[in-house]
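Consider a protein example.
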Amino acid sequence: MTVNSSTSALSGSRRASWSSNPAWRLSFPRLVRSEWIKLFSLRSTVWLLAITIGVALGLTAIVAGSMRMLEGTINELTQGGDGSEGGQGGLSIGMGAAAGDLSSMAMPSLMELVTAAVPMMGVLVFSIVAVMMITNEYSSGMIRSTWVVAPRRKTVLTAKLLVLAVVTLLAFGLSLAGGFLLGRQILHGSALIDLSFGSATDWRIAGGFLIEMVATAALCLGLGMIVKSTAGSIGACVALLMVIPGIFSTISGFLPDPDSLPQWQRWLLDAGQFLPTTAGSQITVAQPASDALLQPWAGLGVLGIWAVAALAIGFIVSSRRDV
C-alpha cells in the first residue's frame, strides 16, 4: 500500500513537472517544426516537389511552343502565298480570313495559359505528397509515437495541414512564376497571347490558382486520413480528381444538344460541374462558358467545401480510431 502510494505520488510529481516545465512542453510551433522535419526527411518528398515544378515548366513550354508554331504557320500561309496557283491563293485567302477572325477575338492572357498547363500533371504528382504525409506514418508505425508525444490528435493534424499548405504555395508559386517567365520568353512578340500581367483578371487567376492548389492538397490529405493506406488514398485521389471528371467530360462531349436530353440526364451532367477539379478550375478561366453553372469564386467555394468535408471526416475518424 505504501509502495503504491509512493509510486502514485512519484508519477504525479513527474506529470506535474512535465506539464509545468516549458522546455518539455510540445507547443504548436514545435509540432509544426517536427512535421516539417518529418516531411523533408523523406527523399521522395524532395523528388516529388522537383518533379512537380519540372513537369509544370515542361508543360508550359510545350503549350507555349505550340502556340508559337501555330502563329508562325498562320503568318506563313497569310503572307507567303502569291496567288499564282488557285489552290494556294484560295488557302491564303482562307487563312487570311481566319487570321482576321483571330484578331477580332479577345486574346487569352499568358497567365490563363500557364494556369491551364500547370495542373495537368502537377496536381497528380503533388497529391502523392499530400497523401504520403499522413499514410507514411501509418505504414511505418511512427503514428503511434506521434500520438504518444502529442496526444491531441487534432492539433497534430492541423500542424500537418499548415505545413502542407506552405509547401503547396511554395511549389506551385515557383511553378507559376517560372512558367510565366518561361512562356513570356517563348511567346515574345506574339500577337495571339496577351503577355502583360496586372489586370484584375490576371490577379484573380493567379491568386485563385494558388488557393485552388492548396484546397486540392487539403482534400488529398483528408482522404489520406480517412483511408490510411497509401495505395488506396492515391487511388481515391486520382479517381475523384481526374477519372470521374474525365468520364463526365467525355460523356458530355458525345451527347447531342443538352436541351434535347431527358431532365434526369441534364441533372446528371450539371452535377459533373460540382466535382472538385471541375468546379475549382473555374477560378482560372477569364470568361466562364455560357452554360457554366458556377462563376469563378463560386466554383472555388465548391472545391473548398469538398476539402473541408474531407478534412472534417478525417479529423473525426483519426480522433476516434485507436491508431
About this structure: The chain is about 80% helix and 0% strand. The CA atoms of residues 128 and 234 lie 6 Å apart. Confidence is low (pLDDT under 50) at residues 1-19, 82-95. The chain has one domain: 27-60+107-320.
